[in-house]
């Protein structure tokens, strides 16, 4: 078997590091593209796992909400619970698409608005709402969310949380659904 010189060994190590760096950049680039195209947080969770999410600047998620969630996510992980954002900030266009799909599915604006609000009323469009998963993570956040000022909002959406109160303050009563907010 031929001996590898120190110079060849150094070049091979450099090549391995370069390939790894390019792979990391490729994943980051795909994640950014998916985020900008409306794939939001779930694209990052799929590509890189729950520990890596899209940067706040790319998602327009409120910075305070982002910090609160990250603190909750760390504490959940310390307790062995996976907690990730499945949907965060949405553009008005994406929100309207969701409304249109819900209207097709449920047959009326009133029924659709039980699940998804129009863009001008959506906390997601304002960057002030997150949907979380998996189910065990959402349950954990419902139990512990008030410590971070993150509150579940709707009875019919166990995944939807908003920064409604100061950390450590009890959360308000749940609303039956998003349509109740339209009054």
Description:
Helices cover about 50% and strands about 10% of the residues. The longest helix has about 30 residues, at about 5-35. With about 180 residues, the chain is α+β, with helices and mostly antiparallel strands. The chain has a single domain (about 5-180), classed as Muramoyl-pentapeptide Carboxypeptidase, domain 2 (2-Layer Sandwich), CATH 3.30.1380. The radius of gyration is 21 Å and the shape is globular.
CATH class reads Alpha Beta
How many structurally independent domains? Answer: 1
Give the terminus-to-terminus CA distance: 79 Å
Oligomer: single chain
Protein name: Peptidase M15
Organism: Georgenia thermotolerans
Domain D-alanyl-D-alanine carboxypeptidase-like core: 61-154
InterPro entries: DD-CPase-like, TAT_signal, VanY-like_core_dom, Zn_M74/Hedgehog-like
Short overview:
The chain is α+β, with helices and mostly antiparallel strands and 183 residues long. The protein is 49% helix and 10% strand. The protein has one domain (6-182): 2-Layer Sandwich (Muramoyl-pentapeptide Carboxypeptidase, domain 2), CATH 3.30.1380.
């Amino acid at each position: 078997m031929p001996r590898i010189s120190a110079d060849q060994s150094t070049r091979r190590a450099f090549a391995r590091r370069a390939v790894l760096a390019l792979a990391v950049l490729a994943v980051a680039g795909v994640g950014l593209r998916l985020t900008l195209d409306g794939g939001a947080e779930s694209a990052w969770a799929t590509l890189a796992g729950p520990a890596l999410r899209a940067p706040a600047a790319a998602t327009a998620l409120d910075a305070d909400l982002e910090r609160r969630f990250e603190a909750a996510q760390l504490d959940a992980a310390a307790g062995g619970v996976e907690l990730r954002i499945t949907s965060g900030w949405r553009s008005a266009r994406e929100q309207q698409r969701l409304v249109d799909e819900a209207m097709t599915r449920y047959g009326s604006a009133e029924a659709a608005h039980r699940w998804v609000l129009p863009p001008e009323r959506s906390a997601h469009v304002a960057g002030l709402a997150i949907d979380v998963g998996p189910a065990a993570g959402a349950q954990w956040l419902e139990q512990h969310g008030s410590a971070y000022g993150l509150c579940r909002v709707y009875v019919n959406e166990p995944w939807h949380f908003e920064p409604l109160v100061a950390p450590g303050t009890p959360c308000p009563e749940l609303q039956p659904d998003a349509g109740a907010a339209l009054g």
